[in-house]
Write a structure and sequence with these properties.
Length: 397
């Protein structure tokens, strides 16, 4: 393999697909110029199936459009789309207690509030990225204020509804990993000691509580002190989440200018998770595994969703960049070849989201409450960035 040609191909492919396919699809069919914000429940051809708005995606889309503006080209339509989503968040998505809804109607009428704080975390990264794009520091300040509220809610017993009965104590991987990334994204827009502390705390928790060498796995749920819980939920491995965590850690390695111990941790998580997730028979990353080899409980356990594939594409590029080990470039080629052979919709644009294990399309819609303009464009933005950085390094050598 000619590495420079390979990296150039993917840098160009990511930018072309992002600029000519993915972002135009959502700009054309998703943006709501009447009420503000973005719709994501779109059929294969972009037809609106449900006007319910995902609050997650107001933040996710707001972030993506601003990040494209910041890293690819300062296109006014991207900045305007980001602000359309952020304005909708500020006008309609907070309840009187300062929490954010999970779903709202087209005009912003509240529909549902969940116990999670993921709506808040995505609003934070949107405001942070928009602050950089617009030069308006007030958005970074609002993002930091919301971040500190999230930390306070999570640390205060009873502030958020409990998932289980009070006597059940445990830890969840998902909030630890998302706070790691949110703090890192926010740190690019504003400096605060709480951000570096959150990153260090997340790294400590991941290593101390969730990494289980006896299973060569990073688990989704553990006991309060990191105890292995021998139940279906306690044995759950989510390869996509774990691979995403690996590249979040590698992003921090790069920010620090290198950290061998942290890089080893990240590569270990990636290697473990690839072994659990890669489907040797059909290819692609499957959804769920059980660390003891029992059948996973979730009905979609062996399906191939869009987002684990995109996380693997980013993580393998990061791993090659930071380690120089060509096995990660080989892994990148394997996951890229499989993903691009199955997910893009050449006829109607954008990507399918839900495939059966063999790669056949399970349902053709381009979006819903959980799928929209985030994982796919983020992969293209980050993949382009990493490829260009490595090409620049090759040129300097």
């Amino acid at each position: 393999m000619n590495v420079q040609n390979y990296l150039r191909y993917w840098a160009d492919r990511y930018e072309e697909d992002l600029v000519q396919d993915i972002l135009p699809f959502w700009l054309t069919y998703g943006l709501d110029h009447r009420h503000g914000g973005i719709y994501t429940c779109l059929d294969r051809n972009g037809e609106l199936m449900d006007s319910t708005k995902s609050v997650w995606f107001q933040g996710r889309a707001g972030y993506i459009f601003a990040n494209a503006y910041n890293t690819v080209a300062p296109r006014a339509e991207w900045l305007e789309a980001s602000k359309l989503c952020i304005d909708f968040i500020e006008q309609h998505c907070f309840n009187p207690d300062g929490r954010m809804y999970f779903e709202v109607m087209a005009d912003g009428t509240p529909l549902r509030l969940r116990r999670y704080v993921f709506s808040e975390t995505f609003a934070i990264i949107a405001m942070a990225e928009y602050s950089i794009a617009s030069g308006d520091k007030s958005y970074a300040e609002k993002a930091l204020d919301l971040f500190l509220k999230v930390q306070d809610w999570l640390a205060t017993p009873g502030a958020l509804p409990a998932k289980y009965e009070p006597h059940v104590k445990g830890r969840s991987h998902s909030i630890v990993m998302i706070l790691l990334n949110v703090a890192a994204r926010l740190r690019r827009a504003i400096q605060a000691p709480e951000l570096d502390k959150q990153i260090s705390d997340s790294i400590h928790e991941l290593k101390t509580y969730f990494m289980k060498p006896e299973f060569c796995a990073l688990l989704e749920s553990v006991g309060e002190h990191g105890e292995f819980v021998d139940t279906i939920n306690g044995r759950l491995i989510n390869p996509g989440h774990c691979i995403e965590t690996a590249w979040f850690l590698m992003d921090e390695v790069k920010h620090r200018g290198g950290d061998e111990e942290l890089l080893e941790m990240a590569l270990t998580i990636l290697d473990w998770s690839w072994q659990w997730g890669w489907d040797d028979e059909f290819g692609g990353i499957i959804n769920f595994r059980d660390c003891k080899g029992f059948p996973a409980q979730d009905y979609s356990q062996d399906m191939k969703f869009w987002w684990p594939q995109t996380e693997a594409i980013i993580a393998t590029l990061y791993a090659y960049q930071l380690s120089g080990d060509t096995k990660y470039l080989d892994m990148h080629q394997r996951i890229s070849d499989w993903t691009y052979a199955h997910f893009p919709d050449a006829e109607c644009g954008e990507w399918y989201g839900y495939l059966h294990r063999d790669g056949s399309v399970a349902q053709p819609a381009k979006g819903n409450i959980f799928k929209g303009p985030f994982h796919i464009p983020r992969m293209m933005l980050k993949g382009r960035e990493l490829c260009l950085e490595m090409l620049e390094a090759c040129a300097e050598d």
